[in-house]
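Lab notes, practical 5.
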Amino acid sequence: MKALKIIFSGLYIHPRFYILGCGVIVLFIVSFFIPVLFLVSQICLALLLIFLIFDVFLLFRVQEGIIAKRILNDKMSNGDPNEIKIILQSRYDFPITSEVIDEIPVEFQVRNFHIKKEWPAGKKDTLSYQLRPVFRGLVSFGKIIVYATSPLKMAKRRFDFDEDVTVPVYPSFMQMKKYELIAFSNKTMHHGLKKVRRIGHTMEFEKIKEYVAGDDFRTVNWKATAKANKLMVNQYQDERSQSIYCMIDKGRVMKMPFNDLTLLDYAINACLVITNVILRKQDFAGFFSFSRKVENRVLPDRKASQMQKIMDALYNVSTDYFESDYGRLYADIKKNIPHRSLLLLFTNFETLDGLQRQLPYLKAISKNHLLIVIFFQNTEMDDLIKTDATDHQSIIDKVIAEKFAFEKKLIANELKKYGIQCILTKPENLTIDSLNKYLEVKARGMI
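Output from the prediction step:
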């Protein structure tokens, strides 16, 4: 009874059986006009049923004919291709054709996913495919379904594997690892990172030591030289342990999508990369987001656990669709950041009027801190500008696009006029441009 239940629950008829069955039906119809074909039709029908029964026997005589297991990381990287592997093993003693269906999370909207593959007898192999999430949050994978077909191709057997698993989609830790290697390698120019010459003495005093050949004569300490009756010099060490905050505007202006990712997700991914480099540079890294109020705060630190704290905070950032309150941001910075720090503000301004409303607060923040405002070019407008105008409407669209692009440059000039540093960048170049700016600030000793 149990065996029959297994057979009926997992048995599917192969399309070839229906095709051959239709042929037999046609043969029976023809035999009505040609009686001699009636016996041939009966023989064909009997053979078809015998092959079907024999095929069912081949597929179900092995209790666990197929074994499948899904292999994936404990978290997925937002905006990057993530590899998913399925280990599949055939226990049949004859070659089979398999059709593997993985129940991909509904958030990916992949509705026709399947992998067909032929397997030799007893073969074990790995199938792989990639998913690119463009969101953060939890995703749930369902079952792995495998249909096995013998060389007769009369029937198919279905195997279900309960591989239900929930995986979080985190900010792009793949980019973080990539740019960590680039930032600390000697080939940064090949990846868009600029080398900036260190200017002046941006170092902290460490000790006084005796002069040796090769020391900078400008560091001679004449008072110590007079006391010791021999040449003494000051020794310095690089300034470290500076506080650097990444601030992300999570208002409605950051919900604009480009290449499937929102500006907010671009900013989150860039913030994760920069934070990792900051900690590797022995600086204190902090983070918070703001809109109507300041949230997701992580106090600056450089402990080993700081990277995970900031990653968790970035994972929980989501827009509230309101206009951001820069007045509250200024008040919070004045209250909670007493020492001069580097503030990386990820936001977006589409019009000069939008900047003018917030400019008094930005000017006030920049008096006590080194503020860098990072905002975005509208790449879709740039594409529209580059296209040729062919009719009256396209000319109007192109003029409007050029106006918006020019206004972005006016916003950048307005910020620079008041001594506020800024980065106007394309969304896809946000990470590299922001990282360049941080390395430049460190090299020039601007904080």
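Observations recorded by the TA: The chain has four domains: 2-60, 66-170, 173-197+240-444, 203-238. The chain has twelve helices and 21 strands.
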